[in-house]
Amino acid sequence: MNRAAFDQLVRTNQEPLRRFLLNLCNGNSSLSDDLAQETFIKAYLNIGSFNGFSKFSTWLFRIGYNCYCDHLRQTQKAINIEINEKNAGFAEGSGHGGNHELYLALSKLKEVEKHVILLFYMEDKSIKEISKITGMPENTIKSHLSRAKSHLSEHLKNIGYERE
Amino acid sequence: MKENNIEEFFKKHKQTIADDGFSARLSAVLDCTPQPIIKEQSNTWIVVLISTLVGFIAFAIMGGYQIFIEGMMSASKSLATLSNFTPEAVLSIVFSMLLLAGLGRYAIKNS
């Protein structure tokens, strides 16, 4: 694959990947763009290992997801609701922020539930694709998704989002 | 209803992310990045070499040429006389095919 072809792939895939990472980073756009850039560079350098068994976007999301997980590990962030809530508040107004309602709702979920629900609802990925991206078995994804829906539904009900 | 609520919530909050120079900045970084090296799997040539050698050796040991020619000739005489296909002839044909397939794959990989 030459550079022109790769540049075209960047243009096509940058929006969903950056949105996914932005939402994982609770609206911190500078961090999510750094991760997105790292993702594309890794994809470019390892393009030879893309075997074509899955969609390019799925492969790219997997790299992005791993970059995000590496970042989490490096920064030793404690994954709990309190810190997520703090981040959601802090991120507001930074770049693409201002989606406080979404980040607050996501802060009610466990980290893994957040990943799964964002991929499923926000990025319209299938269970099979989510399994490839996260490396978790499909049944595990289904159970995380079910729990996430339950938690989120409860939160939406509390904030009066329920529609009849 | 629960499903609809969640779907609607995410639909409502789905952001549109403008490029805002992201692709251009990335392109500038990639300009300074070395070209990706497409690594060939290190064991590929070993597999091709071994299968080729095995093919040749088996072919020679079993008198492949003679049997192959005889087999082909007898086959060409009449398809009805399939009993002329001795196990040796069948083996020689199989190994010949394997040899050709191996060489073909090697040629395709290197082209």
UniProtKB/TrEMBL annotation, chain A:
GO annotation (BP), single: DNA-templated transcription initiation
PROSITE patterns registered for this protein in UniProt: SIGMA70_ECF (PS01063)
Residue intervals of the RNA polymerase sigma-70 region domain: 9-77
Residues of the signal peptide: none
Pfam families listed in its UniProt record: Sigma70_r2 (PF04542), Sigma70_r4_2 (PF08281)
This protein's UniProt keywords: DNA-binding, Sigma factor, Transcription, Transcription regulation
Residue ranges of domain RNA polymerase sigma factor 70 region 4 type in the record: 101-152
Record-stated family: Belongs to the sigma-70 factor family. ECF subfamily.
Protein name: ECF RNA polymerase sigma factor SigW
Organism from which the protein derives: bioreactor metagenome
Lineage of the organism: unclassified sequences, metagenomes, ecological metagenomes
